[in-house]
Design brief:
Elements lengths: L32 E2 L1 H4 L3 E2 L3 E6 L2 E4 L11 H5 L7 H4 L8 H7 L3 E5 L26 E4 L4 E3 L2 H4 L12 E2 L13 E5 L5 E5 H7 L2 E9 L5 H5 L14 E10 H7 L11 E9 L5 E7 H5 L6 E6 L2 E2 L9 E3 L12 E7 L6 H4 L28 E6 L5 E2 L2 E10 L6 E7 L7 E2 L1 E2 L13 E9 L4 E10 L24 E7 L2
Parallel strand pairs: 1-5, 9-18, 20-27
Antiparallel strand pairs: 2-3, 3-4, 4-5, 6-7, 7-8, 9-10, 11-12, 12-15, 13-14, 13-18, 15-16, 15-17, 19-21, 21-25, 22-23, 22-26, 24-25, 26-27
């Protein structure tokens, strides 16, 4: 359930007519009363779509097609209570959501109906794993968090416990002994593999790769205009040494060739699913999946350890150079298909649009799903608003580009972009076309007492792609692909 409501999104519908104000305030409206059985008869647009929240009854038929999470998600609650679905998405627990919902109120539940059965109110997130207290939480349910910027650039490999967590649904509890992965294609051809078979039948391959959420640095876009999505700062990115079987090897083992005529995709489904049974899903082009140079993994290790639960235990996809949304966690199924994944997150999310597109005009079918990400960099030290001593200032940060394109230069300015210096890039040169991991960079520069500095960084990759200088021209309603120059203001002490 994904009833993320906006006050400006509601269509003209069943809003109660305004009553002319009299000298004395009118009594509150008297609503008819309904049983749960009567509410349950309204489960489709043809019969009207009714839902309950608490003891109130709402006719949301005219909102179904406007639902930002998709009509099908809202229809899961048709004829019943919203609470078990809203429990999956904490964004609903905001006053403006209830305010909008009440514009669709048509009745009250009969007093004898009482509260829903306790089972419907159980917390689906109760089984989530413990998390590191240093993470900065953007959402508790589902859990989404990033490390503090000052810790992000301290080591080339991000510690597992500090790696950003992006969950769309509750974390599944998986028994590795009974776990099975299904790999299949058209006509039902395929194989089923246990975790032990994945480890024993296929050579272990290791790849050091950076994963970045499509919404990394979204907060900077929200300062231009409001956007829909989690308020990520610069920490929705991390680098790990991943170990597992090559997806290519598994597909060849299942009988799929290195080439296929026409357009083909490899679709992934996770074990995390909503209350309607719909799993998280995504897909990548078939050519990338079978390319020996693409290094796509079915990973069971992260930084030399068993995958943590938050990061996909017991098995996840890792697609280097591609947006993190395609690296599906808790993998249960791999399917070769002539069409991309039908998942909401592939077809109706994680896409970029022009700044002129709003929620009234957006057409998700008009844009391709994000795959490779644009060149990116950010400053991890000093923090915004810091006071630094006069003398030599050290500036640190990260830089990365999608598609395996190497970062060849990071330019840093201390005066808002009027003059520039070139930062020193750390690490070894990657193989051509396989720069899957970020570069950590550093700059030392003298600063005068009392100066007000606007530190700016911009990265350039091997194709000479460079970050845009400002956010406004790349603003989009989902706040994705945010890669403008990163800016940090600090004061030098006198």
């Amino acid at each position: 359930m994904y009833l993320m409501c906006r006050r400006d999104a509601a269509a003209p519908s069943r809003r109660r007519p305004q009553v002319a104000q009299a000298a004395q305030a009118p009594p509150p409206p008297q609503y008819p009363r309904y049983t749960r059985e009567e509410v349950g008869r309204h489960r489709s647009p043809q019969d009207r779509v009714w839902v309950t929240h608490g003891t109130e009854v709402f006719d949301v038929t005219d909102f179904v097609e406007l639902h930002p999470g998709g009509a099908e998600k809202l229809l899961l609650a048709a004829g019943g209570a919203l609470e078990p679905f809203w429990a999956l998405y904490a964004v609903h627990n905001q006053p403006h959501v209830l305010e909008l919902l009440r514009e669709y109120k048509v009745g009250e539940l009969s007093p004898e109906e009482g509260a829903p059965a306790p089972a419907t109110a159980q917390d689906p997130f109760a089984g989530d794993p413990p998390r590191h207290p240093g993470l900065r939480v953007n959402s508790q349910k589902p859990f989404n968090a990033e490390p503090p910027a000052e810790l992000l650039g301290e080591s080339f490999l991000t510690p597992n416990e500090l790696f950003f967590t992006r969950n769309h649904l509750p974390v599944p509890l998986v028994d590795p002994g009974t776990y099975r992965l299904r790999v299949e294609g058209p006509g039902g051809r395929g194989v089923t593999l246990s975790l032990a078979e994945l480890r024993s039948r296929f050579p272990k391959h290791e790849v050091t790769a950076t994963l970045q959420c499509a919404g990394n640095r979204r907060t900077e876009m929200s300062r231009v205009r409001p956007v829909k999505g989690l308020a990520w700062d610069i920490g929705a990115i991390g680098t790990a040494r991943w170990g597992g079987a090559r997806l290519r090897d598994v597909l060849l083992h299942a009988g799929f060739g290195e080439e296929r005529e026409g357009e083909w995709h490899v679709c992934f489904e996770g074990l995390d699913a909503d209350v309607g049974g719909a799993p998280y899903g995504a897909s990548i082009p078939y050519g990338r999946a079978v390319s020996p140079a693409a290094d796509v993994l079915l990973a069971y290790e992260m930084n030399g350890q068993e995958l943590p639960r938050d990061h996909g235990f017991p098995l996840r996809v890792v697609v280097p150079g591609v947006v993190g949304a395609r690296s599906v966690k808790w993998l249960r199924r791999v399917a070769v298909s002539p069409a991309e994944s039908p998942s909401h997150w592939q077809r109706n999310d994680y896409k970029g649009f022009s700044p002129c597109v709003d929620w009234d005009t957006v057409d998700f079918t008009a844009a391709p799903a994000i795959q490779e990400l644009p060149v990116q960099s950010a400053i991890t030290h000093p923090p915004p608003g810091a006071t630094v001593p006069a003398g030599e200032l050290t500036v640190k940060g990260y830089a990365w580009s999608g598609g395996g394109r190497e970062v060849v230069r990071v330019d840093v300015s201390l005066d808002g972009g009027r003059t520039w210096r070139v930062a020193r890039l750390g690490g070894e040169r990657p193989a051509p076309g396989r720069a899957w991991a970020w570069a950590l960079w550093e700059l030392q520069a003298p600063v005068a007492a009392g100066a007000e500095l606007e530190i700016v960084c911009k990265a350039v990759d091997g194709s000479y792609n460079v970050q845009p200088d400002s956010v406004a021209p790349i603003w989009n309603l989902r706040g994705v692909l945010s890669n403008a120059w990163h800016r940090v203001r600090v004061t030098v002490t006198r």
